[in-house]
Amino acid sequence: MAIYFWAFVVGGAICVIGQIMFDVFKMTPAHTLSTLVVVGAVLDGLGLYEPLIEFAGAGATVPITSFGNSLVHGALQEAEKHGLIGVVTGMFEVTSAGISAAIIFGFLGALMFKPKG
């Protein structure tokens, strides 16, 4: 039961940080999104994001910071196996399923529903 609480708290805190970036710092959505992805990447590079995932579960894997974590995590894993070329291929290998699913489901949604405008 505690995992649900901590997932809510950590995921909510990440969202609050994003909202503060919008409201207080007047950042655009693109700047906020990019900043949160970079923060996730830096935290993974420092070895701090995996413990956060173990602690908060979906609270750390659902927000956009997890995308930065996935990029760096995949790049580091493949770099150990294949060197410099593994950095590039690792990023695509780890994130390709999620990106492909987003494209496919977005396309299917566009086919099934008409936008109101």
Summarize the structure in words.
- The protein has one domain.
- It is built from six helices and no strands.
- Helix 2 (29-45) crosses helix 5 (65-82).
- The chain is 84% helix and 0% strand.
- The chain is mostly helical and 117 residues long.
- It is globular, with a radius of gyration of 16 Å.
List the helices and strands and how they pair.
Elements: H1 2-23, H2 29-45, H3 49-56, H4 58-61, H5 65-82, H6 84-112
Helix pairs in contact: 2-5, 5-6
Total of helices:
6
Following the backbone from N to C, one meets helices and strands in this order, namely HHHHHH
The total tally of domains equals: 1
Report the end-to-end length measured between terminal Cα atoms: 44 Å
Strand runs, count: 0
Q: What is the structural class?
A: mainly alpha
- Helix content range: over 70%
**Overall radius of gyration:** 16 Å
Q: What is the molecular shape?
A: globular
Which regions have little confidence, pLDDT < 50, spanning 5+ residues? none
What proportion of the residues form beta strands (DSSP E)? Answer: under 5%
Quick recap:
It contains six helices and no strands. It is mainly α and 117 residues long. It is globular.
Question: Main traits of this protein?
Answer:
single chain, 117 residues, mainly alpha
